[in-house]
Amino acid sequence: MPDTNDREMGVELGDLNDDLEAHDYPASSEELIEEYGDRELDLPKGSKSFDEVMEPVSEKTYEEADGVRQDIFNFVGSDAVGRENYSDRGAAADEVEGEEEPESL
């Protein structure tokens, strides 16, 4: 099985990512939902189908796959969030408790 690490912003697109790239654009949201609506998007808290995620999009025309992916990320909701109120990026230097920023001379 090839390594298709297509997880971004908590959403695993899998083969759908390649299919969206290969799709002929421009394409309407209705066309994309008809073609890929039953595809499952894997999320940290379960999964949602492509048509379920894209339900808020009505009569939109996409010029490229990037726009479709952006709407997926926008509409997937809180199910794509792993642990809420948690960041594995660490605190910024100026946010570390007990440390003050040095004064400029």
Question: How does this structure look, described?
Answer:
This protein has a domain at 26-76. The chain has helices at 15-22, 29-36, 50-53, 65-75; strands at 7-8, 11-12, 27-28, 40-43, 46-49, 61-62. The strands form three sheets. It has a two-stranded antiparallel ribbon. Strands 3-6 form a two-stranded antiparallel ribbon. It has 105 residues and is an alpha+beta fold. Residues 1-8 and 85-94 have low confidence and may be disordered.
Instruction: Using the CA coordinates, give the radius of gyration.
Output: 19 Å
Please provide the ordered H/E string of secondary-structure elements: EEHEHEEHEH
Taken as a percent bin, the fraction of beta residues is 15-25%
Could you give a short account of the major beta sheet?
A: 2 strands, antiparallel
Principal-axis shape equals elongated
What class would the helix/strand composition place it in?
alpha+beta
Helix content: 25-40%
Terminal residue distance: 59 Å
Strand order of the largest sheet: 1-2
Poorly predicted spans: 1-8, 85-94
- Using DSSP, what is the number of strands? 6
- The whole-number mean of residue pLDDT values reads 77
Q: So how many helices?
A: 4
